[in-house]
Design a protein that fits this description.
Blueprint (H helix, E strand, L loop, with lengths): L2 E11 L7 E2 L7 E9 L7 E12 L5 E9 L7 E9 L7 E10 L6 E10 L5 E14 L1
Antiparallel strand pairs: 1-9, 2-9, 3-8, 4-7, 4-9, 5-6, 5-8
């Protein structure tokens, strides 16, 4: 087990149905969380453990939702994690997507920034909350 170095949380919405942010451009990532982890004191092999949730109200159609996490601040930065879930036509209630990702041996800079994005392949998808993104940095 490594030594805890730093941990941060980005809590965009704390409760169900507390926001209503439509995804208005198809297949274009929309930021929903960002954290910065201080690396002071990190020696040996660093590891970043990331997790989060996002809740979406989906249109009544077959829709694909993609979660992408990058090391950096823009979608073109190095991808640490990406996954697409496809939801069926019969889902009426908001859907909660939970994810967990790791970044093994990232470069040690004064601060590591991670950004979480969501995109949809169909208009009518609405971010409704809760939304949470957090991470910790540990090192040997």
């Amino acid at each position: 087990m490594g030594t805890f170095i730093d941990g941060r949380t980005s809590q965009n919405a704390s409760t169900a149905n507390s926001i209503a942010i439509p995804i208005t451009v198809l297949n274009t990532p929309q930021l929903f969380g960002q954290i910065g982890l201080n690396t002071q004191g990190a020696t040996g092999t660093p590891r970043v453990l990331l997790k989060g949730t996002i809740s979406l109200q989906l249109p009544l159609a077959l829709v694909g939702i993609t979660i992408t996490i990058v090391r950096g601040t823009v979608v073109t930065d190095p991808v640490v994690y990406s996954a697409t879930s496809t939801f069926s036509l019969s889902l009426l209630a908001p859907q909660v997507i939970a994810f967990s990702a790791d970044d093994f041996n990232p470069p040690i800079t004064p601060q590591l920034v991670y950004t979480a994005f969501v995109s949809a392949n169909l208009l009518g998808t609405i971010r409704v909350g809760p939304e949470s993104f957090d991470g910790i940095l540990v090192a040997d």
